[in-house]
Amino acid sequence: MQKPKATLYISYDGMTDPLGQSQVLPYLFGLAGAGYSIILVSAEKEENFRQHQASIAALIREKGGERLQWEPLRYHKRPPVLSTLWDIGAMYRQVQRLLKRYDVQLLHCRSYISALIGLRVKRRFGIPFLFDMRGFWVEERVEGGLWKLENPLYRQVYRFFKQKEREFFKEAAAVVSLTEAGKAIIRENRWTSAPIEVIPCCADLDFFSYERVSETDKAAARQTLGVQAGDRIVSYLGSLGTWYMLDEMLDFFAVLLAAHPRYTFLFITKDDPRQVYSAARQKGIDPTKIKVVAASRQEVPVLACLSDFSVFFIRPSFSKQASSPTKHAELLGLGIPVFCNAGVGDTDAVTRAVHPGLLIPALDSETFSQSIARLPEILAMPRESLRLVAQEQYSLTEGVEKYKTLYHALLKRI
Fold first, then answer.
1. Are residues 115 and 49 in the same domain?
2. Domain that holds residue 94
3. Prior bond to 79 cis, omega within 30?
4. Which residues are in the Glycosyltransferase subfamily 4-like N-terminal domain (predicted)?
């Protein structure tokens, strides 16, 4: 009996994580809808899987139909390094089992851990793999302080992955970069002769649309938050992890308050609120001017639309040239102007296309004051013009089309 043909998608990010729900599943739903049969292998964090497995499985059945099959495995966090090795082994064994049941014609490997498996399968079985790199992961680990190279263990891990990175680029059938800046670095260093497609972190612009948010919804949200009539809001959306510059964003807010004292800073994040309030107190900012709220994906559009504008600062570095902040796509889709710093991926170019005054070249009080002085002209921009930039740069529909074109080209070779 002939085995059914399929593409095997391998992700070390879980589908019960917010990242998987925004940056993996929507693309796979689009590909499945276009007729591609896909088997999805993912590593799921225990608590997230316990809470969301049923709803995600139902969503995959609804949106993916018979063409998208989910094979979740458990993710292990501890002990460092050894837990990852365990997970890699488990995922490889699962892939071997699936190869016995399906005629896998393409391996789609999301980031470096998955590419380890893809490279091994490619070498053993001759199945081509797509290296969907998601950024310069090895350098991110070092620059973010997660791999301290003075530690002999992490130094060895770093060397291992730098060697593997060279092999991924050399042997991949194609590469996906999140940014044009990342693609340029790859080409300049001649790391690969394979095709490189640029597909940024896109957003579902049907979901992230101001047309879905009513004034009644916003009024109810303001009341729940305790925001007074006449008060204005600046927002921050997302996690406050390794790369986001909380202190500098609060410095920006302090300068904003000096010029416009009716503003409140709304953090839409699932991170510990105490970290935000503690940092604000150290800056001498009145804690009543800070609101921190954990929101589900469904709640984000309404909360974000309470703000006149949003802000994010990301620590610039070599690895961040290959980064594409999802929040930028989502906020622009909602018609919200976004202040951000220079030096991160293609964000500079996109931000200038919205309004040059939104790009902050230096993170100091004088530059903040100059940027804030341009608020009236920035806030006068029609929401439609901001959303148009999102549609041109970050459309999920366009992202899916690029993957479809790539799949078609790669599978046609077989």
1. yes
2. 5-199+396-412
3. yes
4. 51-201
